[in-house]
Structure formats: structure tokens, C-alpha cells
Specification:
The chain is about 50% helix and about 25% strand. The protein is rod-shaped, with a radius of gyration of 48 Å. Among the domains are: about 120 residues, PAS domain (Beta-Lactamase, 2-Layer Sandwich), CATH 3.30.450.20; about 150 residues, Histidine kinase-like ATPase, C-terminal domain (Heat Shock Protein 90). With about 400 residues, it is of the alpha+beta class. A five-stranded antiparallel sheet has the order 2-1-5-4-3. A five-stranded mixed sheet has the order 7-9-10-12-11. It has a two-stranded antiparallel sheet with strand order 6-8. This is histidine kinase. Its EC number is 2.7.13.3. Keywords: Kinase, Phosphoprotein, Transferase. InterPro entries: HATPase_dom, His_kinase_dom, HisK_dim/P_dom, PAS.
């Protein structure tokens, strides 16, 4: 027996091979045979050595040997996949499949035979055929799924391209329209300012106030649309930070907003020294959007409180109002474009860009914005910036 350190000998491999192996002389005399063949045919090795293989065949097999096997081995030197019967030691027929080759050696000519039991060969072929059919079915199923996936991806690409085209067209139209609206709005504002310098009666001044208010709202809307277009095409909102006093800036902005929203109480709370570096125009826009949102969605009698804080851990601008809280399902997406709540102030309705622009201005200053809202405490939108010395 071979040990773990020694490979099995060639004789052991020869004897234990899965098929019958024989070496015969040119006349069919068996010179070497493995135990597998001996087991199949019911003879011992000693009984087979020196015996001609054709003596193990039935009459039909012997005829096949003389008329087919011998001539083919001499002409072609090989016999492949030939079926015939061998007679078992007990007398019953044992179907075999044969492959043989003719070999020339210095000692003479001999034949190498490999035999398989036909039943096992048929079983192997059936299993092979079944495996092939199963593989073909899986391949057909895979190809069908792949084709369906390719069709779906093709449709998705077409849909995506169409959506991109529509989005690009919408962005271009928003940019063009909002840009072209600025000139006539500026002319309206200038004309209203000139008219305001004349002597007007109460009715005329009221009408002029409405014109001015509407023009200012339109200008804010145009500014939001332009900023939205810039963010959608990847340019982002540009800022030019300069040193300023945050408290004074917020106070000045609220003074202007009191003229825009007469009848609404705007309160300013200050904390800290006020030194800050930011784009003043953008902060005016940010505060204006937050206050307009608070007035639109807050209670009419509640007023709006704006807090400006400059502390060691950061700078904040917070806008608080009382009224119906923001629905929980809107909180996560409140700062996305086109998100709007519901309110009764029809004249203050917008396209839903105000808070989106607030967030983009905050991020342009390396800050961010958050919201808290409840019935008891009201709604607070807080913009947080890095510390003043950041």
C-alpha cells in the first residue's frame, strides 16, 4: 500500500481504473489486463492472460472481430466507440463499448484496448444529454432575461434622455424668462419711485403702494428663479464675503421688510458682538425669504422674531413664528425646490423656491439650515454658519 508520502504505483492505477484496460498481441492474445475488466467478465487475471479476446465473444462478436475489427486496426490503426457483447464466465452476455489503438514497439505490434460497460456508457450519455438540455434551458432563460433587461434599459435610457432634455429646456426657459423680466420690473419700480415723489391723494398712494409691493415681490421671485437656475446647471450661488456687523445688517433688513409687510410685527433679538464675514446682499435675500415664509405660514397676530447670534461656537440667524406647525411629512424635504405648505394668504404664495434658496445661500457660506416645528413652541428656521473667525 502506498503511504501518504509515496504516490500510488502505475500498477495500482492501472488495476483500479474505471474502465477495462487490456494489452493484446496483434492476434488478440491478452498480455495484460486490469482487475476492473476481470471483475466485469467474471474471470481471474490468470485465467485471462494468454487467452485470445475473441474467445470471450459470442458468435456475432467473433464475426465482428474478423470482418471489422482486424481489418480496421490494420488500415486505420484504431477502432472507436464500437458496441459488442462479451460472454461472462457465468454464460450471460455483457454488452461492451470498445476503443482500441494499434501500437508498434521494438518487441513487435500490440493493441491497447479500453472497454466500457454499455449500460454505464448509456447512463453516462443520458446524464450528459440531460445536463446539456438543462444547460440549454438555463441559457435560453438567461438570454430571455438578458434581452428583457436590455429592452428595459433601452427604454430607461430613452426616458432618462427625454427627462434630461425636458429639464434642460425648463432650466433654459427659467433662466431666459427670469432674466428678461428684470428689465421691465426695474422700469416699473423706477416709475413707482418717481410717482411717489409727487403730491398724491390717499387713494392714489394706496394704489402706488400696491404697485411697489407687487413689483418687489416679482423681483424677489425673479431673483429666486435665477438662483435656482444656477444651482441646477451646477454653478451654484456665488457669494462675495466681506466683514460686516451682523446685528446691524439684520436690523437694516428688517426695516425694509416692515415697509414690504406693513401690519406685521417684526422683532429683532441680538446676542454677541456681531462681527462676521459674509455677502451682505445674499444675507438680505436669505432673511427676506425666511421672514416672507414665516409671515405666509404663521398666524396673522403672532408676529415674527428674528434672532442674530455671534458666539464662540458659531453664528446663527433664526426666524420664529407662531401658527399651524409644519406637517411632519414635509419636514425632511422642506428645503427642496417646489415644496410648499398650505396657507390662506393667497397673495403670499410662491413657487416654492424660497427655502431652497435659503439653504443654498447658507451652504455657499459653509453653513446649513434646520427647522423645528410644534403647535406649542411654533416654528423656528435656524441658519448656522461657522464661527466668525473661521
Amino acid at each position: 500500500m502506498p503511504t501518504d508520502d509515496q504516490p500510488p504505483s502505475a500498477d495500482i492505477l492501472f488495476d483500479d481504473f474505471d474502465c477495462g484496460l487490456l494489452h493484446t498481441a496483434e492476434n488478440g492474445q491478452i498480455e495484460r489486463v486490469n482487475l476492473t475488466f476481470c471483475h466485469w467478465i467474471g474471470y481471474s487475471r490468470e485465467e485471462l492472460l494468454g487467452r485470445q479476446i475473441q474467445t470471450l465473444m459470442n458468435p456475432e462478436g467473433k464475426t465482428f472481430y474478423q470482418t471489422y475489427w482486424v481489418p480496421l486496426m490494420r488500415i486505420q490503426g484504431a477502432v472507436t466507440d464500437v458496441k459488442f457483447d462479451l460472454v461472462h464466465h457465468n454464460g450471460h452476455a455483457t454488452p461492451m463499448m470498445l476503443n482500441a489503438i494499434r501500437c508498434e514497439h521494438a518487441t513487435g505490434i500490440f493493441h491497447e484496448l479500453a472497454l466500457f460497460r454499455a449500460e454505464e456508457r448509456h447512463r453516462y450519455e443520458r446524464n450528459l444529454l440531460n445536463a446539456r438540455m438543462l444547460a440549454e434551458r438555463h441559457l435560453a432563460k438567461h438570454l430571455k432575461a438578458q434581452r428583457a433587461q436590455d429592452i428595459a434599459q433601452g427604454k430607461l435610457r430613452i426616458t432618462y434622455a427625454a427627462a434630461e432634455d425636458r429639464a434642460l429646456f425648463a432650466e433654459q426657459m427659467i433662466g431666459i424668462v427670469s432674466h428678461d423680466l428684470r428689465n421691465p420690473l426695474s422700469a416699473i419700480t423706477m416709475a413707482a419711485d418717481l410717482l411717489g415723489r409727487r403730491e398724491l391723494d390717499a387713494k392714489q398712494r394706496q394704489i402706488l403702494g400696491h404697485i411697489t409691493h407687487s413689483a418687489q415681490r416679482a423681483q424677489r421671485l425673479v431673483a429666486d428663479l435665477l438662483d435656482f437656475t444656477l444651482t441646477q446647471v451646477g454653478r451654484g450661488i456665488a457669494v462675495s464675503p466681506k466683514q460686516l456687523d451682523l446685528h446691524e445688517l439684520v436690523a437694516g433688513c428688517l426695516e425694509e421688510l416692515r415697509l414690504v409687510f406693513p401690519g406685521h410685527e417684526l422683532t429683532h433679538l441680538r446676542v454677541g458682538p456681531g462681527e462676521f464675514s459674509a455677502d451682505s446682499d445674499r444675507l438680505y435675500q436669505l432673511i427676506g425669504n425666511l421672514v416672507a415664509n414665516a409671515i405666509a405660514y404663521g398666524s396673522a397676530a403672532g408676529g415674527v422674531t428674528v434672532s442674530s447670534r455671534c458666539e464662540d461656537h458659531g453664528v446663527t440667524i433664526a426666524v420664529h413664528n407662531l401658527g399651524t406647525p409644519i406637517p411632519p411629512e414635509l419636514l425632511d424635504n422642506l428645503f427642496e425646490p417646489m415644496i410648499r405648505g398650505s396657507h390662506d394668504n393667497a397673495e403670499l404664495r410662491s413657487v416654492g423656491l424660497g427655502l431652497f434658496i435659503v439653504r443654498e445661500i447658507a451652504r455657499a457660506h459653509h453653513g446649513d439650515v434646520a427647522v423645528t416645528s410644534s403647535l406649542a413652541s411654533g416654528t423656528t428656521l435656524t441658519v448656522t454658519f461657522p464661527p466668525a473667525n473661521h
